[in-house]
Amino acid sequence: MLRIAVPNKGSLSAASSQLLADAGYEARREAAELVVLDAENDIEFFFLRPRDIAVYVGSGRLDLGITGRDLLLDSNAAAEELLPLGYAHATFHYAAPEGEYPDADHLQGKRIATSFPALVRADLAGRGITPAAIVTLDGAVETAVRLGVADAVADVVETGRTLRAAGLELLGEPVLRSEAIVIVKRGSTLSAAHERLLRRVQGVLVARRYVMMDYDVPTAVLEKACEITPGYESPTISPLQREEWVAVRAMVLRADVNRTMDNLWDLGARGILVSGIQACRL
Ligand SMILES: Nc1ncnc2c1ncn2[C@@H]1O[C@H](COP(=O)(O)OP(=O)(O)OP(=O)(O)O)[C@@H](O)[C@H]1O
Ligand SMILES: O=P(O)(O)OC[C@H]1O[C@H](OP(=O)(O)OP(=O)(O)O)[C@H](O)[C@@H]1O
Ligand SMILES: [Mg+2]
Fold first, then answer.
1. Histidine biosynthesis HisG C-terminal domain: from which residue to which, for each copy (predicted)?
2. What are the structural domains of the chain?
């Protein structure tokens, strides 16, 4: 039986549960449920704090887990990233009072507040910076400067609203770009059961990102049409009753749908239809 760690609270929780439900797995009926047995799929889901998930997966007690890339890197657990999931996007940034320091290289000898001490320690070491202290806090890190326990912070930034409200500004480029990821114990060999779950999850991600596009096009411009819609692997071309025309079917990125339809129309394609993909295995 596969044992999977799922975030029980916070920014990763709802989207992770939705992803697993869309992939056909048993959902938890109430937030207080800590373990869900999905007997049909031979999987046990453990609902854990996102910060702890890398520890469980790294120990080998759980087979796979969903967590944030930043949380994995901060954990120092023996776990590695297997698959990015495309939600819970955030950056990890240094920030300081507006106008105080031009960039992160000016943090030498400063006190830096963060909930990600290991990640920050490793990043500062890489920059050759020795801080006066790394002040480890549980949350609401932005307030640490105003209250005088730190000179700068290193924290998760999504919209930047929290930072601005605290009178802080970003210092330079992000330390890292995070999103939800699937993790596995470092160096483990994936079983057929692992692969099946990953294929299901990937199927959901692709079905969300792509639509199916069907259209008719004169054979004379078919090659150009296929350049506009190269498909996921290759477009399907079918004959039409009408001479010198063919039907084309190809997957198209949802984000590109309208631009693609404009381009196909200008090329002479007609009868352009777009439909959602309910599920897929690719
Ligand atoms: N706006 C956000 N705030 C916090 N974390 C975010 C945000 N957007 C994405 N994330 C990601 O979510 C993960 C943090 O998970 P966590 O459960 O700690 O979220 P949280 O919303 O901060 O929860 P909590 O209610 O415990 O503060 C990190 O990987 C982080 O990059
Ligand atoms: O860039 P923003 O959109 O403002 O989001 C980022 C903020 O959200 C999170 O805080 P959270 O609400 O989780 O509170 P916490 O600091 O107590 O964890 C994170 O720690 C940042 O403070
Ligand atoms: Mg938080």
1. 207-278
2. 2-87+179-189 (3.40.190.10), 90-178 (3.40.190.10), 210-276 (3.30.70.120)
